[in-house]
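Task 17 of the worksheet. Students: predict the tertiary structure of the chain below and write it out as structure tokens. Keep your answer in the requested format; marks are given for formatting as well as content.
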Amino acid sequence: MSKAIQQIPLNLKHIESQGREDFLVSDCNAQAAQAIDQWPRWANFSIIIQGAEACGKSHLLSIWAERSGAKLVSAEAFIAQGWTAYSEVKVLAIDGIDALIGEREAEQQLFHIYNHMKETGGHLLLASETVTKELDFVLPDLGSRLRSVPLYHIDQPDDALLAAILVKMFSDRNLRIGADVLNYVTPRIERSFGAARAFVDAADHRALATKRGITIPIAREVLLSE
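Model answer:
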């Protein structure tokens, strides 16, 4: 008897909902979300959103950019173009600044844009996976400046938020996850945004390959394979 032929899933990117109404707020991220909502009434010209990979930092930066008209760039794009490319920008968001720390030239570029935005009355929103006080700066002056910037930490999700995140991530892929699957997965998955994303990626891939929906057997297979 021939084995069932599995469909080979295409590695297609999906579009995540990035509106303010799509950002799920819980105790772990409420202060960061509130800080974004309070712009332009910030006490400081700059703030930093800090948290682990996939915790929602980029989502908050996207919300702020849409609301404020800010230029949103990755740290890599910022360095590739140089700080002078943004000298006329009044509101700027840079995602992933911790990737720049430890490289003198990159730190100098960040130092210049920080000072420029402060001197010209601009607003600067930064995102980092690492707490600034734990970063190993090459330029002491940059370190002292960034460590003085108000930092809003996003913690790992609680059970309620984790469940809501799973629902949203599946919904972004036009997939429905039933309450039975959600109740099965939530107590068994690592409490982190990254783990939720990895689970959804794997479950989506496996469901497509086997032409099945997101069921408890699919969820069990994914969890056992991790």
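Marker's comment: The first strand starts at residue 46 and ends at 51. The longest helix spans residues 193-210.
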